[in-house]
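Readers of this paper often ask what the protein records in our data store actually look like. Such a record has a labelled line for the sequence and another for the backbone structure tokens. Nothing more is needed to write down the fold, since each code stands for a local backbone conformation. The record that follows is passed on verbatim for readers who wish to inspect the format.
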Amino acid sequence: MGLFDSPWHILFLLLVLVVLFGSAKLPKAAKSMGEAMRIFKKESAKLHEEDPSEPKKVQEWTPQQQVAPPQAQVTPQQTAQEQQVAALQQQLDALKQQQMAGQQPPPAEPPTTPAPQQTNQSS
């Protein structure tokens, strides 16, 4: 015995749907379902209208002579930039050496303290 054998089953199912979704939402849902089915049918008809016997033009890739990568041409601007980078690197190296020399303990020199100031106060 199936679900839709008796009209009572269908009636009971409709009653449950009305209770669950409300009577206002069911017509809207049916309308949107119908529109979706129409759109689906149109799109599937468009797919069947295309001629499957007509092959699409696909260009095959055929290996040709291998193209060598372009040689980098050195411009005067690039060489000037490279020179600036080299000069900056040298400056960084010099600063690092100065910092390393500065981290070593300095030679022992007595700390210089300012002489106490004397004030003339008369009592």
Observations:
- The chain has a mean pLDDT of 76.
